[in-house]
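Format notes (please read before filing issues)

Several people have asked whether sequences and structure tokens are stored in separate files. They are not. Every record keeps both together, in the order shown below: the sequence lines, then the token lines. Line labels are part of the format and must not be stripped during preprocessing.
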Amino acid sequence: MQKFGGSSLADAAGVIRAAERIAKTREEGFRVVAVVSAMGDTTDDLCDLAAEVSTRPLPGDLDALLSIGELVSSALLAIALADLGQVPRTFTGSAAGFITDNIHGKAHITDVRPGRVRTSLARGEVPIVAGFQGRTKKRRKITTLGRGGSDLTAVALAAALGAGICEIYTDVDGVYTADPRVVPTARKLDVLSSEEMLEFAASGCKVLHLRCVEYARRFGIPIHVRSSFVPEAGTLILPGLDRGALRQPAGEQPVVTAVAGVNSASKIIVVGIPDEPDSISRIFQVLSRSGANVQTVVQTPAGTGSRRSDVALILPAAQAAQALSVLNAAKGAIGFQGLQHDSEMGRVSVTGLGMRSSPEIFCTFLKALSDADVGLDLVDISETCLGAVTPTDRLADAERAVRLAFGMATADGAAVTGRMGTLVPAGGRPVGTWIAISGNDRRPVARGDRAVARHF
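Then the structure lines:
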């Protein structure tokens, strides 16, 4: 799988360069499927044009307009490939088998049916797929996947076809420790895990879109981010051996793999620290001496008009005594007014894929706890985990309510393990998948395994 971004196809020279890259890869004995973005700033230009015509274009009409950009790229690439003696065949997102929900402008993939693309490959052709787009299952309306959608198209199609790797060609030669345009000393990273790249993407790294990385991790697809302009290797993003694809249907719906409760947490509130830039850093300099593993930090103003704030820390209960001791000893140096400690805290958490990018997961989690009348203290969320701090005496109720909400327990409280089901929040619309893990049920699944996706 080779995906060429808008910067790689910004002009005729870029299109010819992409065609030569594809032809060279085929000469080396590999079959290639190409996914293309719109050329340069085409999508932005179409958005601007639509805004000149109407201040309130219908989302479906706007998607139909924006999908044209990728069709131009795919047609031009086909012309260039034909000149090189290749046999190209172009596909819209719909023709390539991309089925999405009906959220125009930011649709999510619900299934991929690549039969036509597979047939084209078998004929010795070079399939060229327009990225960024798909169609709804009902009424077959054109949808777009949002910014970065062509990366997502490439990874999803790679998973559906059992591709060995997905190469993302762009205007940078890999993923760096920082933006090299801002930090000249930034270093290129040769290899990253998918988990590390998830955090990079969530923290603002624009090389790959968050949803693209989530999908690759879900199905165990290696990604190679590399430059269209130089032949050198870029950055490999690899799923770990224990992070391979779970047995699940195709699509980018969120997947909940576990619900857990831990009753050994403590909360320390550092009351009235000076409202100065280095106050929190002084707290953590002190805590580092105690070896405290702080899991959550929340800073709130001490009161209206106050020039002080309170900082709440969640850490393992076994580390609380030493943390309190070193903080008390440094009270004068830090300048805070007092300490509050609550050792009767627990934490209920949901782990899986798509935790941050799926609002339905967050809503289902909070509603489950609200319906169970479980009070929340602090809530934290990452790409793979959503957690909330609760009173210890309500932790069992919280865990039971969340398991029930995600279909991982029955109404009588019995756990459901070693099974897979559909995630249906209170609204009644299926939004994802839950997978109850038991024993060694979770295992890496080789790409191309029919168990990975139902359309294989």
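For reference, the curators noted about this record: The chain is about 30% helix and 25% strand. Residues 172 and 179 are 10 Å apart (CA to CA).
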